[in-house]
Design goal:
The structure holds two protein chains of two kinds.
Chain A lengths: L10 H29 L12 H4 L1 H33 L7 H26 L13 H23 L8 H20 L2 E3 H4 L9 E3 L3 H36 L6 H15 L14 H13 L1 H14 L5 H5 L1 H24 L1 H7 L3 H31 L6 H34 L11 H6 L2 H31 L17
Antiparallel strand pairs in A: 1-2
Helix pairs in contact in A: 1-3, 1-4, 1-18, 3-4, 3-5, 3-8, 3-15, 4-5, 5-6, 6-8, 6-9, 8-13, 8-15, 9-11, 10-13, 11-13, 13-15, 13-16, 15-16, 15-18, 16-18
Chain B lengths: L1 H4 L3 H19 L1 H5 L13 H12 L14 H7 L34 H9 L1 H4 L18 H15 L7 E2 L5 E2 L7 H17 L4 H8 L5 H11 L2
Antiparallel strand pairs in B: 1-2
Helix pairs in contact in B: 4-8, 4-11, 6-11, 8-9, 9-10, 9-11
Classes of the chains: A mainly alpha, B mainly alpha.
């Protein structure tokens, strides 16, 4: 009995895999619409002027960011947790009725939150705080979802057979704790309906912080939501999936230790770099700037640890598209965590802040690192979850190159756009007057907006290929048995 | 120590929590001791202005427009005096934005007028050739939510001591008050009074008629808010 391999129960993981693909397409489709709206403003009324309120740039923009962060990425994090958690803790969810129930409750409540977010943001019910737009009733539901996630993590840990926690588990625990702390404090708000004795909208609330303090808390949150949503859990994934897929042991335990605790300590300080030259105290700005540069160390620590894990096995990059996805993700992680600190240097920030260079930075991180890693994880999981071979390796390769091209077009055009606009804003003529009106600095961006929209569209096309490949894998992929699933994922040509 | 922690999840989690809390405690907390203190001349929003601020938020104007003028010559040349912390003392939430797809609006009330906004919101391209901002024609049809604005005023006055009905020092040495009605009907009436002044400067006859009939379209509230940004 004890020697029989465990039958892991992936039912919750499967459900989250589905929402990962679906919300990925939704979020990126909205992103592509936004990109074309900037390039060709006529797209704002694409569904007619009657519906323009719901299709124009400003109403859709929060929906895009939230759909990819809390839809696509979070689904991916949950899907991988319900897969990786069981495997590294050597315990099946089927062993505990409570954990099964929690997992399913987690999924359905999460889905309900997603739907209510979509509807409320389209209607313009928003607090306006970036990545924290949800009004108070949704916030409460989010807290319940998150607590359920936490109970699932610690519940599974509680009944584990493997006593020592693998690196990925460290990162999942950190994700849970980090987001919990940040989300709670940033969303402290008073519902005005109750505070005023039943006047006005039920949904409306007012922030407990005012002005500069509010900004400080928001960017402490905003920056670290990136930390604990786009970095920490994605590192959790790569620490599991890359060694597993390549059959290589993690290069260095000490390096992972250093990067983990380093990241935990340093990341939180860096939020101030969103507020350089604003009205927050100068010392907070300087701290933000300095710690952003220090942040290169733990970030690169993880990335290098992953790349060196491939030592002696680099031919796998050529032969396996799955390894390609992960190695490129790791490379984009290094690239993005170098670019970020550069932008956080005060003199660079003076130029870059408020421009499209920041948008470019966000997207080389999210498209190149986060999304590539999540898709790689799903490709690795699919055959093990569905007991079927990946439908097409050729499609994986096609997707890889189309999306890589898309990301490159995206960030290069946004670099040029951002730096151009930043330079034009500050340009003075020989008499010391501003050289350009604001609209001059917008019109010069139009070609770059178009290139970016093309890049984004390519990435979206890749998403459709991904969805198709996953669907085919699930339905018609060749059946495989356990022995084929040790390391490298089986793929049909 | 690390090996031990990795076998004891509870203490591991505590370790993480302490490590990540540190920065917040040092960087964020001390600033709360120094509560946002308004600079001389800063006033809380009137009911209509606050309703307009809600329209601004509802349409995510902050997705493309900042309200933060940085202390550079190029910015003060373009937008006016650089922003001071105390000017935001009554801003809940803050609306600094993070991207300037359009220009900064922190002092837009100094250099744009009611009818400029009116024409611009209908069709930005007609006012600023080459503009990529979409039109916001629905602001002329939807009605502003005065009740919720009043609810927020009551909330912030009670919870955060926002000084409505109090003497506020002004730059010229005088004092001014922002009145807050004692009930909803009073707030609606004063918002309508203010809306009539805005509508008087507008060209759209439908808007004038709507306001005359006692209703306040979103555009009127929004313009009242934008004009207050100085």
């Amino acid at each position: 009995m004890e020697n029989r391999p465990l039958e892991y129960d992936y039912s919750v993981s499967k459900m989250f895999m589905l929402t990962t693909v679906l919300l990925g397409i939704v979020g990126m489709l909205i992103g592509v619409i936004l990109a074309w709206e900037l390039a060709f403003p006529g797209v704002n009324t694409i569904l007619g002027s009657g519906l323009a309120e719901y299709t124009n740039f400003s109403r859709l923009r929060p929906l895009h960011t939230d759909a990819v962060i809390f839809g696509f990425t979070l689904s991916g994090i949950f899907a991988t947790w319900y897969y990786v958690g069981q495997r590294v803790l050597k315990v099946s969810m089927a062993e505990s009725k409570l954990l099964m129930f929690l997992g399913k409750f987690h999924f359905w409540l999460y889905l309900a939150v997603v739907v209510s977010v979509v509807v409320s943001l389209l209607l313009g019910i928003t607090t306006s705080k970036e990545y924290a737009e949800f009004e108070w009733p949704i916030d409460i539901a989010v807290v319940v979802v998150w607590v359920t996630f936490g109970m699932s993590i610690f519940g599974l840990i509680g009944i584990r057979r493997e006593k020592s926690l693998y690196i990925s588990i460290w990162y999942y625990i950190a994700t849970f704790l980090g987001i919990a702390m940040l989300y709670l404090f940033n969303n402290m708000e008073i519902p005005t309906y109750f505070a005023s004795g039943g006047i006005g909208s039920f949904w409306h609330s007012v922030s407990m912080y005012a002005g500069t303090n509010d900004a400080l808390v928001q960017w402490w949150y905003g920056h670290n939501a990136v930390a604990f949503g786009f970095t920490v859990p994605i590192v959790a994934m790569i620490y599991y999936f890359l060694p597993k897929e390549s059959g290589q042991a993690v290069y260095s335990y000490k390096l992972s230790l250093l990067s983990f605790w380093g990241l935990m300590f340093v990341y939180l300080w860096a939020g101030g770099h969103h507020l350089l030259f604003s009205t927050v105290p100068d010392w907070v700005q300087t701290m933000g700037s300095v710690f952003s540069v220090i942040l290169i160390l733990p970030s690169w620590g993880s990335a290098i640890n992953m790349l060196l894990t491939m030592k002696g096995e680099w031919q796998q990059v050529a032969s396996s598209p799955l390894i390609k996805f992960m190695v490129l993700a790791s490379t984009f992680y290094m690239f993005s965590t170098l670019e970020g600190p550069i932008q956080a240097i005060k003199s660079v920030n003076a130029l870059a802040h408020f421009t499209d260079w920041i948008i470019g930075h966000v997207h080389d991180g999210t498209l190149g690192w986060v999304a590539f890693m999540i898709m790689a994880a799903l490709f690795h999981m699919a055959p093990r979850v569905f007991k079927r071979e990946i439908y097409s390796k050729g499609l994986m390769n096609t997707q890889f190159w189309i999306q890589t091209l898309g990301v490159v077009l995206y960030f290069t055009s946004m670099w040029v756009a951002g730096i151009t606009q930043g330079m034009m804003w500050r340009a003075h003529d020989e008499f010391g007057n501003l050289a350009y009106s604001f609209i001059d600095t917008v019109q010069v961006l139009m070609p770059y907006f178009t290139i970016r929209a093309v890049g984004g569209t390519l990435y979206l096309v890749g998403m459709f290929i991904f969805a198709y490949n996953m669907y085919k894998t699930m339905t018609v992929g060749r059946r495989v048995d356990e022995s084929e699933l040790q390391n490298a994922t089986p793929m049909a040509a | 120590m690390f090996h031990w922690l990795e076998k004891h999840p509870f203490f591991f989690a505590v370790g993480i929590f302490v490590t990540i809390s540190f920065a917040g405690l040092v960087e964020v907390l001390p600033n709360f001791v120094q509560q946002s203190r308004p600079v001389i001349g800063t006033k809380p929003y009137t009911t209509l202005q606050l309703a307009g601020r809600h329209v601004y938020i509802k349409n995510s104007c902050n997705a493309c427009h900042s309200q933060l003028i940085r202390p550079f010559k190029s910015e003060t040349d373009r937008y006016g005096d650089y922003s001071l912390s105390g000017e935001y003392a009554y801003d809940r939430p803050f609306l600094w934005g993070s991207k300037r797809t359009g220009p900064d609006l922190h002092r837009v009330g100094n250099y744009r007028t009611t009818d400029w906004h009116e024409n611009h919101m209908k069709n930005p391209e007609a006012v600023v050739p080459g503009s990529i901002m979409p039109g916001y024609p629905w602001l002329f049809d939807n009605l502003a939510d005065i009740d919720t604005a009043y609810a927020e005023q009551v909330t912030v006055m009670n919870a955060f001591n926002v000084p409505y009905n109090a003497d506020l020092p002004q730059k010229d040495g005088s004092t001014a008050q922002v009145k807050l009605a004692s009930d909803l009907a009073g707030a609606q009436a004063s918002a309508l009074e203010e809306a009539k002044k805005v509508a008087a400067d507008m060209k759209d006859q439908d808007i004038k008629d709507t306001v005359a009939a006692g209703k306040i379209p979103e555009i009127v509230a929004l313009i009242a808010y934008l004009n207050s940004l100085k």
